[in-house]
Amino acid sequence: MKKRILVAFLVLLAVSPLVAKSFGYGLGMYGHSDLQDVGAFSSGVELSFVYQPWLLPFGNPSVHSKGAMGSDMQGSLTFPYVELGISVDLFRTIKHPFNRFANNIVAYSPAVSVAYHIDGEGPSHLLSVGFSPFKLSQKDFWYEFFALYVAMDIETGAVDSWGVNLVRYTYIFK
């Protein structure tokens, strides 16, 4: 199953620059806590790749992959998770109070996401559900603040870990 998902994702990445309307990469800062191991917490940077085939006003989908690298409570280097999933912007509007914080007009587009989440040290079959309440979009950039996620074990249904992306900047190629 993992091999099929990885092959499909690699094919998508190889073909997407040829047909993509929007392909991009992002960099963010995360915090991640493992509920199965009390006190297991890590923080660091997250690298992501995004493919957004359309720009719809409602229900706009995008495919993403993310990988995190940081340090744990003991200061050791850790790779807490890798994700492959889909994100959907719930709606897009330019009439919102966040425009006063930007020089240019930005669209407010909160998003929800679902991803196959591979934990670096825990169970291998996790489903990640996320919510990005403060996502601002421009033509070439996304800015996300305080995006939360919860990773659940698919087999047992128990919550395995949770985390927050404090800030994520995504640059979109045209």
Short description:
By secondary structure, this protein is mostly beta strands. The chain has one helix and eleven strands.
Please describe what this structure looks like.
The protein is mainly beta and 174 residues long. The protein has one domain: Porin, CATH 2.40.160. It is 10% helix and 59% strand. It has one helix and eleven strands; from the N terminus they run αβββββββββββ. It has one helix at 2-19; strands spanning 23-34, 40-51, 58-72, 77-78, 81-91, 107-108, 111-119, 126-132, 134-137, 141-153, 159-173. Strands 1-2-3-5-7-8-10-11 form an eight-stranded antiparallel barrel. Strand 2 (40-51) and strand 3 form a beta hairpin. The mean pLDDT is 85.
Identify the notable features of this structure and list them briefly.
single chain, 174 residues, mainly beta, Porin, eight-stranded antiparallel β-barrel, 11 strands, globular
Helix content: 10-25%
**Are there runs of 5+ residues with pLDDT below 50, and where?**
none
**Structural class from helices and strands?**
mainly beta
Could you tell me the mean pLDDT? 85
Q: How many structural domains in the coordinates?
A: 1
CATH class: Mainly Beta
State the distance separating the first and last CA atoms: 32 Å
Give the overall form: globular
Task: Please give the number of β-strands.
Answer: 11
**CATH topology name:** Porin
Report the portion of residues in β strands.
over 45%
